[in-house]
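Can't paste images in this forum, so I'm doing it all in text. The chain is below; anyone willing to post the predicted C-alpha cells underneath?
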Amino acid sequence: FSSGLEEKDGGQKYTPGITSLTEDQMFPLWTSGRKQTRKSVRTGLIAVKVGNIGLWDVNNKRMNCSVLCVDRCHVTSVEKPQKNSKTGHWHLEVSAGLERPYKVRRAQRYHFAAAGVEPKKKTCGFGVTEDALLPPGTELTARHFVAGQHVDVKGVTRGKGFQGAVRRWGFKGQDRTHGVTKAARSLGSTGTRTIKTKPGRKMAGRMGGKNRTILSFQVYKVDGINNLIYIRGGVVPGATGNFVFVRDAHFRRQREADMYPFPTRFTTGKEVPEDLVQTADGVNQHAKEATLYFHRSKHRR
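Text version of the structure:
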C-alpha cells in the first residue's frame, strides 16, 4: 500500500492512498476466505450531531428523528489485541472531521499521512474481530449502517452548570404552602448528629457534561448521497455540532447479523442515486420529508 506521502517540489503532499481501491481489490487483501459469523464484531464510526427533524411514515404518523452526519471518517491504524485482553478483539482506530494542519502536532500529521488521509479532528478506537479488519485509509460512510437495524450511540451530554437537587436529581421539594419560607426547593437533611453524610449522597452540583450511551435505537433512514443517518427518537446525547460514536447494537448484534454489509460497504462508483437512500419501511420519503420552514399562526391570543 502507498504510504500516503508524495514528495513534490521538495515538499510533501497528501494522496488518497488506499481509499481509491475498489471493493474487488480490497476484499482479497484483507478478508480473503473469511465469512461473517454470529461472533463477528464490526467497527463503528464517528458522526456529527446535526439536530432533530420530523418525518412521517407510510401511516402518516409523525416521528422525531435525530440527524447524524458522517464527515470524512477514515480508518487510520490497526493494532493487534493485547495479551491481557479478555475479548481478544483487535483495535481499529477511526478518525473523522477535518483539522487544519498547523493545529496538529508533527507526530500526528505523519501518523495520518501514513494512512493516506488528511489531519483529523476526532479520533477514537473500536474493538473488532479479526474477520472484520479494514486497511488504513478505508473510508466509512453512512451506508455502513442499514435502515431498520439498531445502533448504540455514545456522546457527551449537554452541560447544565451548577444546579440544585430538584433539577439535578428530580426531587419533589417541600410544600409551597403555610409554614415553608424560602425552602420549597431546598435539599433538606443530609444526615444527623450521629450519622454523617455518606459518599454518593444526591446533592446539588455540576449537572451534565458526562459520557452517556443510548442502547438499541432504530436507524430509520440512511441518506448515502449526503452521508446522513436518521435515528428514530430525539435522544442522541450532546449538543448540535458535537461528535458521537455510533456502532451496531450490542444486544441485537446476533439477531441482525444478516442485515449488515460485512465488514463495511465499499464505494464502487456504480451506485444508483435511488439506491443510496433507504428507509426502514421501504418507502422513499423525499415527497413526505419535513421542511425547515416555520409558519407562525395568524391567530394569536
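The two ends are 68 Å apart (CA to CA). Confidence is low (pLDDT under 50) at residues 1-29, 283-301.
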